[in-house]
Design a protein that fits this description.
Keywords: DNA-binding, Transcription, Transcription regulation. One of its GO terms (molecular function) is sequence-specific DNA binding. InterPro entries: AraC-bd, Homeodomain-like_sf, HTH-like, HTH_AraC, RmlC-like_jellyroll, Tscrpt_reg_AraC-type_HTH. It comes from Sinomicrobium weinanense. This is Helix-turn-helix domain-containing protein. This protein has 291 residues and is an alpha+beta fold. It folds into 2 domains: 171 residues, Regulatory protein AraC (Jelly Rolls); 107 residues, Orthogonal Bundle (Arc Repressor Mutant, subunit A), CATH 1.10.10.60. A hairpin with a 2-residue loop joins strand 5 and strand 6.
């Protein structure tokens, strides 16, 4: 087994003119990069995919979603995923970096959109026929602009992308897909916490340590997390550890004991008990079941 490959936009943008944005039909994209996208991989950019025909499955961080007409996937950097789909599958695929969006909308981080706000919110939305047609027009217009060399090309593309995100946000919220509706007062703090966990989860497992990093009391931090996510700070930390454990157990060539140490656990027996407590399976049982 190999370590999980991290893909960059430049690997898809063949002309290398725009290393921060890419769009194509899904069929052309899959024809050109079939071997790359059908094995587990990560991106260092945001991904939006709309399917207009075909069937299949899309696995994102060990959760499986159905591909069918109207399926929309909205993924943020770092998620591990791969596709399986029928030959007639088509739609649109769009990539962009965080900087591409935020250099145009300085006061509106891309993470403010509900599907990107929290790791607790699912990356999937199913549209009806009318909604699919409406979103298709956005993708077609962006794709048309992308292929031309007009004045202020990228400025128009990012404006269309913003409108696409706004309308997808409305549909996402209306569908009830959002699992986390964070109070406005806590928005920045929860995003800050998730970023800190992402940076430190292998070395720091204590909720109190994250409270100290954020200059708030552990009690207040836990109250914000409880109110916003219906979980504890410790839940968020251990969930991130377990997700990475699953990724490494399945995709890394390292021994289980080495993986435990990589995640900050010198005692493999303790790590194995913790993993079973959180997933219901031992590490070896999980790998066997996954394969």
């Amino acid at each position: 087994m190999k370590n999980i490959q991290v893909l960059h936009i430049g690997e898809f943008e063949q002309e290398k003119s725009y290393p921060y944005f890419y769009i194509d039909t899904f069929r052309r994209h899959s024809d050109n990069f079939h071997k790359t996208i059908t094995i587990p991989h990560k991106h260092n950019f945001f991904v939006v995919v709309l399917f207009t025909q075909g069937r299949g499955t899309h696995e994102i961080d060990f959760n499986s979603y159905e591909i069918k007409p109207g399926s929309v996937f909205l993924m943020y950097p770092g998620q591990v995923h791969h596709w399986q789909f029928t030959e007639d599958t088509d739609g649109y695929v769009l990539f962009h970096t965080q900087e591409f969006y935020e250099m145009h909308y300085i006061n509106r981080p891309v993470n403010n959109f509900p599907f990107y706000f929290s790791t607790q919110n699912p990356p999937y939305l199913l549209l009806n026929t009318a909604e699919t047609s409406e979103m298709t027009r956005y993708f077609e217009e962006i794709l048309s602009e992308y292929r031309e060399e007009n004045l202020r090309k990228m400025q128009r593309i990012v404006s269309l992308l913003d409108l696409l995100y706004i309308d997808l946000s409305r549909l996402y919220l209306q569908s009830g897909a959002e699992k986390t509706a964070v109070p406005v007062a806590y928005t920045r703090k929860i995003r800050q916490l998730e970023k800190l966990i992402e940076r430190h989860y292998t070395t720091e497992k204590l909720a109190s340590a994250y409270a100290e990093m954020m200059h708030v009391s552990p009690k207040h931090l836990n109250r914000m997390v409880k109110t916003s996510l219906q979980k504890t700070t410790s839940d968020l930390i251990i969930e991130r550890v377990m997700l990475e454990a699953k990724r490494l157990l399945v995709h890394s060539p390292n021994a289980f004991s080495d993986i435990a140490r990589q995640l900050g656990y010198e005692d493999y027996a303790y790590f194995s008990r913790l993993f079973k407590q959180k997933t219901g399976l031992t590490p070896s049982e999980f790998v066997k079941k996954y394969k």
